[in-house]
Amino acid sequence: MLSQVLSKLLNDVGWLPTVFVGLLTFVVIRHFMKRKKYPPGPFPLPIVGNLLAFRDDTPQFIKTAEWQKKYGPVFTMWMGGRPVVVVNNWDATREALTVRRNDVIGRNKTILGNLFKQEDEDIMFADYSPEWEVLRKIAHSAVRKYAVSEELAELVQDVVDASVRKMLKEKEPFDPTLYIYLLVYNIIASSAFGKRYEEANQEFMNLKEPNELLLTEFSSGIPGDLIPFLRIFTIHKEWKIKKAMDEYLAVLKREFMEHKKSYKPSRLPHYVLIRILSEVRVTHQLRITLTKFQLNDDFCILLFISHSAGTDTSERMLSWMILLLGNYPNIQKLMYEEIESALGNRAPVQDDKHLCPYTSAFLMESLRFGTVVPFGLDHRTTVDTEINSAGTDTSQLMLRWMILLLGNYPNIQKKMYEEIESALGNRAPVQDDKHLCPYTSAFLMESLRFGTVAPFGLDHRTTVDTEIDGYKIPKDTMVLFNLWAQNRDAAYWKDPDIFNPDRFLTNNKLKNERFNSYVPFGQGRRMCLGEKLAMADLFLIIVRLLQQCQISLPDGAESARLDPQPVSLAAIPFPYKIVVTSRNGLVK
Ligand code: HEM
Fold first, then answer.
1. How far apart are CA 122 and CA 46, in angstroms?
2. Minimal-distance CA residue to ligand 1 atom 26
3. What's the predicted TM-score (pTM) here?
4. 436 CA distance to ligand 1 centroid (A)?
5. What ligand 1 atom has the least distance to the C-alpha of 452?
6. In the structure, which protein residues have their CB atom closer than 6 angstroms to any atom of ligand 1?
7. Could you give the ipTM of this predicted complex?
8. 3-class DSSP state for residue 93?
9. How many Å apart are CA 521 and CA 499, to the nearest integer?
10. Transmembrane residues, as ranges (predicted)?
């Protein structure tokens, strides 16, 4: 009986091997057909693609820079079943991000992005949308204004002085990483909600935890983003990061609420409205609002403040409408043409809305949009979160490189100190001083090139079928721009692996030009939103630091390792120790 059942079963499944071979052939053929749609690159195996090539310790950005020699500046690597187009040189990056403007402006849906933005719409990981555009404009403007403010210069001075005081107490060579973290987080926390951390307490640890965890748990990216079923093996790590992120957001929200309680609404938001309304009164109502209003930085920052100050709803709505008009000149033009032809110069009355359907539709859409984009607390928190997570990690990594480079090149440090001493003496630096300190500014620019802390920037997505460097690339393809390769491209930089601030100088002045193949902050409409703030921060920090102390490698250490650690998401220096000595007793 049993043998009968077994032989029947064998007869029944006799077709299985045939089906298996058929399926395998189908998968292989489909894989190769799919490959043809993308630029050629290293040969991918079915299912794993080129993942096996990343088994060794070489960071992905260095490996792909090397592949360029064989496959050219634009090629496809297959990360599991996912094609990823890598753009290694500056000309192709410029074509994709500047010349073709919006073609590669999207972001991909990734587990990484979701972990960071949670349920909120953010700027960094948000796909291209009108909401992203408006949020970015507001935050960009606020950040740029803040970068040149006296408030920032004073804050940096205070925070650096406090850090120097602590570092000077170290009697043995020490790893400066924690001091650098505290310094950078204190600048952000002080400006966002007037808070300082004297030591690495629990709340401070909560702020730095998500980024830290990401680098330790997923140093080469999240496997589930490449091969979906691998997610089951790493889901526990995702939960860990999600939990850390919840705690991080809880700190931000709590701090924001505290800050809001003591916040005195300034007259500024009203000033905006008074300005608009007075213009409206003296001339013709809609006309002036529609034709003369120019979106400008002033307005953006005031709007930003007005949201966090909690102005009343109709004021906010008016602000949004004006912002949207400035942001979409074509819509504004259509509305103006409609009003002009329906009313001429006659002042509008309520009933005119039937004569101006497009303008009424704009009003309705603004009301819808205004509720879609988070207001008040949420909005402010989103922007703060963004600045916190996008800005602190890159800035602290950059400072880690800069301190290492100062210790490694005592002659460069000496030249910087002499320049600062003669230009500023003991006076605390302000933004404008960078013109008085060209060598120090050149050091900053060279450090950004040499360190390239965000070597792949953030991933991009093609929003349409497009072309880069003569290759067709379908819509919805992930594209990575290798910023590391471009900052070290020998076609543009002489001896690219040598650290040399002089390359940015001519006759002891900063070269007055745009540097090709210089992309520490990326390029195009997705370029780093905090570039100005990061440059301002880093300049002020380094100058204030050097005014007060000398940084050296420990006795006997000839030179430090200057290659990045073997992780792929960021360019991180190997751990190192320094000795800090007081120069002039400025800080006690
Ligand atoms: C040395 C410091 C920094 C470096 C090297 C750096 C570098 C970058 C790079 C390479 C990108 C990706 C660009 C792309 O997707 O093509 C980026 C994006 C971004 N950065 Fe920075 N960044 C730094 C500091 C900051 C700071 C201080 C802030 C906050 C004020 C900030 C906010 C952002 C935001 C919001 C984005 C996303 C922009 C978007 O998607 O539209 N960054 N950054």
1. 35
2. 391
3. 0.79
4. 27
5. 5
6. 123-124, 136, 143, 386-387, 390-391, 394-395, 398, 453-454, 457-458, 483, 520-522, 526-530, 533-534
7. 0.99
8. helix
9. 19
10. 15-33
Q: How far apart are the first and last CA of the chain?
A: 95
The C-alpha atoms of residue 122 and residue 458 are separated, in whole angstroms, by 14
Distance 391 CA to ligand 1 centre (A): 7
Mutation test residue for ligand 1: of 187, 394, 518, 523, the one with most atoms within 8 Å of CB: 394
Q: Whose CA is nearest to atom 15 of ligand 1?
A: 458
Beta strands 466-468; 460-461: pairing state: unpaired
What is the full per-residue pLDDT of the chain (588 aa) written as tens digits?
Answer: 556 765 665 566 666 777 777 777 776 777 777 788 999 999 998 888 888 888 888 888 999 999 999 999 999 999 888 899 999 999 999 999 999 989 999 999 888 777 776 555 567 888 888 767 766 776 676 677 777 778 788 889 999 999 999 999 999 999 999 899 889 888 877 766 667 887 778 877 877 777 777 777 776 677 777 777 778 888 888 888 888 878 877 777 676 666 656 544 443 333 333 333 333 322 233 333 333 333 333 333 333 333 333 334 445 556 667 667 767 777 877 887 888 888 877 766 667 777 888 877 777 777 666 544 333 333 333 344 444 455 677 888 999 999 999 999 999 999 999 999 999 998 999 999 999 999 999 999 999 999 999 999 989 999 999 999 999 999 999 999 999 999 999 999 999 999 999 999 999 999 988 899 999 999 999 999 889 889 999 999 999 999 999 999 998 777 889 999 886 678 889 999 999 999 866 555
Answer for the pair 323, 299: CB distance below 8 angstroms, yes or no.
Answer: yes
| Rounded distance between C-alpha atoms, residue 295 and residue 470, angstroms | 37
Three-class secondary structure assignment of 297-364: HHHHHHHHHHHHHCCCHHHHHHHHHHHHHHHCHHHHHHHHHHHHHHHCCCCCCHHHHHCCHHHHHHHH
- Cα separation of 374 and 369, whole Å? 9
